[in-house]
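Subject: for your reference before the review

Hello V.,

The reviewers asked for a structural picture of the protein, and I figured it would be easier to keep everything in one thread rather than splitting it across files. Below is the amino acid sequence we used in the manuscript, unchanged from the supplementary table.
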Amino acid sequence: MSFEHTPPLDMSSPEAKRASYDTLITQAQAILHGERDRIANLAQFAALVYNSVPQLNWAGFYLVNPSNDRELVLGPFQGKVACVRIPFERGVCGAAARSGEVQLVEDVHAFPGHIACDAASRSELVLPVIANGRLQAVLDLDSPEPSRFDAEDAKGFGAMLAALIAGTDWS
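And here is what came back from the structure prediction:
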């Protein structure tokens, strides 16, 4: 199976974002079709997002550590080398894991307890991945642009995650 690289999507307006996320959902469903392995699907999803969404410098997952359910451990991602372990009590990813709520941070330097894995990151969007009634992971998206993410991005990535959750076996 081969896939052609597509140029970054248009995220210049709310309408363009909605259309772009509709495209991404269709693409996510296509790459997930017939494959239910968690790691393979998370890796493909991260690659799709990182290579399609403009103004990202990191896109990937932190998984709930099976031996310590108050800690996240690095999962499949695209971008620079990253922090490996994040306690629920620290950072934007920890806040999403702890609260089960989307974290949309316009300025990571103003976020109390922010963990700077990449000094170039200026804004962040983190969404909890809840499957089988429990937190499985968080999707972490970083941008070198301040205020890169908005409610439309949170909604679009939430819909993409719904496709990922439905198309993946979570153990």
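For the response letter, the relevant points are probably these. The CA atoms of residues 59 and 78 lie 5 Å apart. The helical segments are 14-32, 38-52, 91-99, 151-166.

Happy to draft the paragraph if you're swamped.

O.
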